[in-house]
Design a protein that fits this description.
Radius of gyration: 23 Å
Strand content: 15-25%
CATH architecture of the largest domain: Roll
Oligomer: single chain
Number of helices: 3
CATH class of the largest domain: Mainly Beta
Strand order of the largest sheet: 1-2-3-4
Helix content: 25-40%
CATH topology of the largest domain: PH-domain like
Shape: elongated
Number of strands: 7
């Protein structure tokens, strides 16, 4: 989520608290990145990579070449494990969008545990999607003096679907009579 004004962590002094609502929202969606490789698949990948290195290294047993090649093979498997673990940690990001007739909130949970909030009146919210340029189908919400990026970790097709769903939900919210 990109905040173009200020970036104050939730709970910090001066951080705006999102308003609370008792009733159920008209629309809610939780977004998270797609993970194509399961934990079991990850372990299998590390095992197979190690076995692939093991086959040619067995031919070098008893030679000095084994001791030259072994650190590189170990470094490769170790870096693969490290970077895949980092990828799994970074994929723990979530964004939750909730919409009531008079309030729209976005709560983003970063991998490090930091929580960021955005809220605005849906009547004044502007939902924009940049269909051209990079990143493709760049989705932003503008309201309450802030502009945020929504679903940056989603594929361009998923951002387009989210845009259509949110546009419809916001239109319904605007049409709902207020009490």
């Amino acid at each position: 989520m990109v905040d173009t004004t200020r970036n104050i962590p939730a709970g910090a002094p001066g951080a705006p608290a999102p308003p609370e609502r008792d009733g159920a929202p008209q629309y809610t969606v939780t977004l998270w990145p797609h993970r194509s490789l399961s934990q079991r698949g990850f372990h299998l990948l590390i095992l197979l990579t190690s076995l692939v290195y093991l086959v040619p290294l067995t031919a070098l047993v008893g030679t000095r070449a084994l001791w030259v090649m072994l650190p590189f093979a170990g470094l490769h498997v170790g870096l693969l494990w490290l970077f895949m673990r980092r990828n799994y940690r970074d994929a723990r990001i979530t964004e939750e969008v909730k919409l009531w007739p008079d309030l729209m909130t976005v709560e983003r949970r970063d991998p490090g545990g930091r929580v960021r909030h955005w809220h605005a009146n849906p009547y004044w919210v502007r939902l924009e999607i940049a269909r051209e340029g990079r990143p493709e189908n760049y989705l932003t919400l503008t309201g309450n003096g802030r502009r945020i990026e929504l679903g940056a970790f989603l594929s361009p097709e998923e951002r387009l679907t989210l845009h259509d769903e949110l546009s419809l939900a916001i239109a319904r919210s605007r049409a709902t009579p207020r009490a």
